[in-house]
Write a structure and sequence with these properties.
Belongs to the DSD1 family. GO terms for molecular function: D-serine ammonia-lyase activity; D-threonine aldolase activity. It comes from Parabacteroides distasonis. With 367 residues, the protein is an alpha/beta fold. It has 2 domains: 8-16 and 258-359, D-serine dehydratase-like domain (Lyase, Ornithine Decarboxylase, Chain A, domain 1), CATH 2.40.37.20; 22-239, Alanine racemase (TIM Barrel). The protein is built from 10 helices and 16 strands. Helix 3 runs parallel beside helix 4 (94-105).
Length: 367
């Protein structure tokens, strides 16, 4: 239905607010499973949802492998007894000890992490040895994003430096291709093929050094369908669970549905063509240029300026938007938007029926 998002008791929800629609979340999870075929190859990234209840939905759907970016997310998954958790971040400094604390606190969860520098690998190994822990690690490859990861031509040397470390065990390669976000499907496919080729070349070079098979973890949401067709790698989409305006507008070939919205209200009528809503920088991810949100029930409203608690909209006739008017918005980027809220309202059958804490938005839960 065109107005699936409307909440009958929205008057009970103070704005700005985040709303989750579990039935649509479930549909997105099932779609991801159908795309990949083999659920054992699906390793969703929980950086998007940061909520135990959403992660539980993934577990209940038969998904056993997860990826995360923070220790808090890793702890959330450990508390749920998630079987396999990859910290897709190279731990440095105090983060190393925090990861080892999780390994001790949640023995039912198998933790691993990324490494891309020999010196840091030795630091991790030393603390593991002191704690009588053997830690599985993935070599983080720079496949073109130029953010983290060892360059492919230096990967074998890194492997050789890590192999003598008795407390670390290399179990695979990680290639995140966040630089590939082309709207044109054929161009996106070419980018994914190039990233895979780099990873596969390193994979062949280093596999001979191991008596056991290595794992490849590839990609995010935009290239998920490309890697899903390859049977020799795990896929780690994240945004798919909620979807957003940025991906929905850019990738019409991916039929996921929006499952998380923002609720905002008109707080001031400025003149004949401008109103202000309570959706400032602190309520929607602001790293993108305006517009940062698209309004389902008022697509004609055009964001023109934003500050900490305010978003000014240009409208055809401000008399149609009296004080208190409710707007339902799809953020351009859902992942950092979720992290701005301490809870989400749960919407079923057009009614807000409860709240789910965004527990992993914190940098620390316990450990």
């Amino acid at each position: 239905m065109d107005d699936w998002y409307v909440i009958s008791n929205v008057d009970r929800i103070d704005s700005p607010a985040l709303a989750f629609y579990p039935d649509r979340i479930s549909g997105n999870i099932e779609l991801a499973k159908r795309i990949i075929g083999d659920t054992n190859r699906l390793r969703p990234h929980v950086k998007t949802n940061k909520a135990a209840e959403v992660s539980r939905m993934l577990l209940d759907a038969g998904i056993r492998k997860f990826k995360c970016a923070t220790i808090a997310e890793a702890e959330m998954l450990g508390h749920m007894n998630a079987p396999d958790v990859l910290l897709a971040y190279q731990p440095v400094g105090p983060k190393i000890s925090r990861l080892l604390d999780l390994i001790k606190a949640y023995p039912a969860t198998h933790y691993s992490c990324l490494v891309d520098q020999a010196e840091n690998a030795r630091a991790i190994s030393a603390l593991c040895e002191a704690g009588n822990i053997t830690l599985d690690v993935f070599i983080d490859l720079n496949v073109g994003m130029n953010r983290t990861g060892v360059l492919p031509e230096r990967a074998e040397a890194l492997v050789d430096a890590i192999l003598p470390l008795k407390s670390l065990q290399i179990i695979g390669l990680h290639g995140y291709d966040g630089h590939i976000h082309d709207a044109e499907l054929s161009v996106r496919c070419q980018g994914a093929d190039a990233a895979y080729a780099l990873t596969e070349r390193v994979f062949r070079e280093i596999s001979r050094k191991f008596a056991y098979p290595l794992v490849k973890v590839m990609g995010g949401t935009p290239t998920f369908p490309m890697y899903a067709k390859r049977k020799d790698c795990e896929c780690s989409p994240g945004t798919f669970v909620f979807w957003d305006w940025g991906y929905g507008n850019a990738y019409p070939d991916m039929p996921f549905k929006v499952a998380a919205l923002l609720i905002t209200r008109v707080i001031s009528v400025l003149d004949e063509h401008h109103v202000c809503v309570d959706l400032g920088y602190k309520a929607v991810a602001s790293e993108s240029p305006l517009p940062r949100v698209f309004f389902l029930n008022h697509p004609e409203a055009k964001p023109i300026s934003q500050s900490e608690e305010h978003l000014v909209l240009e409208v055809p006739d401000s008399r149609l938007y009296p004080l208190g008017s409710v707007f339902y918005g799809i953020p351009v980027h859902i992942c950092p938007t979720v992290a701005l809220y301490d809870k989400a309202y749960v919407i079923r059958d057009r009614e807000a029926i409860g709240e789910w804490p965004i527990i992993a938005r914190s940098r620390r839960i316990t450990y």
